[in-house]
Design goal:
75% of the residues lie in helices and 0% in strands. It has 271 residues and is mainly α. Helix 3 runs parallel beside helix 7 (135-159), helix 7 crosses helix 9 and helix 8 (163-171) packs antiparallel against helix 9. The chain is globular.
Length: 271
């Protein structure tokens, strides 16, 4: 009952509110104007940028995170490296929002520590016209928590590879490369793709870090929702913000459905 109450208050009620308000006009009546507005240039541009941001950080975080997870698993289940890496990943995967944005500004901002150090010697200016406060900067910052999140979700899949499978492959004359190509990689592919989809959903819905870094403009959908709800320029378009939120819910729902299907396929072999 406490769990159902929690889900009802923080998931079901907000979702129903978003769906209902998306089809509500300024006079309180039903309308499709908010849904039609999703086809405007601004809405489509921010959606495309959000997909680029989520997709690129999911691929980068998935590749680097999977490599780090493999190194951790290779070190052994009782190694200090594994314990330390998983503990640090657990912290960094949740380190976002204002603290993360401030950390990058203090490090790579116009007067950041690393920026000033490279300006002094060897005379390299990495500021580059403020890339940190645009889409490129968001990609770099998001990878900071995407990589450790990939480590946490992919290590169990690597742990699921049984020693007996390797031994059977070796007994049949397979080399290490053949084992990974014909046995391990096919088994890990659904888990890897599912983890990448999870990273996509995580980055697609992230808001706080982008809100701190980008004070002007709306390069991604969450920031356009903020403007629709609070900006004086877009006054009276609060319901458009709910329609944009509905759009995000649909995208995340599709991604998480694919993730659940891949997870179910993986569980057949990793039991």
């Amino acid at each position: 009952m406490p769990f159902l109450l929690f889900i009802g208050i923080f998931l079901v009620v907000p979702t129903v509110t978003v769906v209902a308000t998306s089809f509500q006009g300024a006079d309180g009546g039903l309308t499709l104007d908010n849904i039609r507005a999703l086809g405007s240039e601004a809405a489509l541009t921010t959606l495309w940028h959000s997909i680029i941001l989520a997709g690129s950080t999911a691929i980068i975080g998935g590749a680097l995170g999977a490599l780090l997870a493999w190194l951790v698993v290779s070190a052994g289940p009782t190694s200090r490296l594994r314990r330390v890496t998983l503990a640090v990943s657990g912290v960094l995967a949740q380190f976002g929002g204002v603290p993360l944005a401030f950390a990058f500004i203090a490090t790579l901002g116009f007067s950041g520590v690393l920026t000033e150090a490279l300006r002094s010697w060897p005379g390299v200016d990495i500021w580059g016209g403020g890339w940190l406060f645009g889409l490129k900067g968001l990609i770099v910052v998001y990878c900071y928590f995407q990589i450790p999140l990939m480590v946490l979700v992919f290590v169990p899949a690597l742990d699921g590879l049984r020693v007996q499978w390797r031994e059977a492959a070796v007994n049949l004359g397979a080399s290490r490369w053949q084992y990974w190509r014909h046995v391990a990689v096919p088994l890990l592919t659904p888990a890897f793709l599912g983890s990448v989809l999870l990273l996509f959903a995580n980055a697609f819905a992230a808001y706080a870090t982008a809100a701190v870094l980008v004070s002007q403009g709306n390069p991604i959908t969450p920031l356009l929702i903020r403007s629709a709800l609070t900006s004086e320029v877009l006054l009276g378009q609060a319901n458009l913000g709910f329609a944009l939120a509905l759009e995000m819910i649909v995208v995340v729902a599709v991604v998480m459905t694919l993730y659940a299907l891949l997870l179910r396929r993986t569980s057949r072999w990793m039991r």
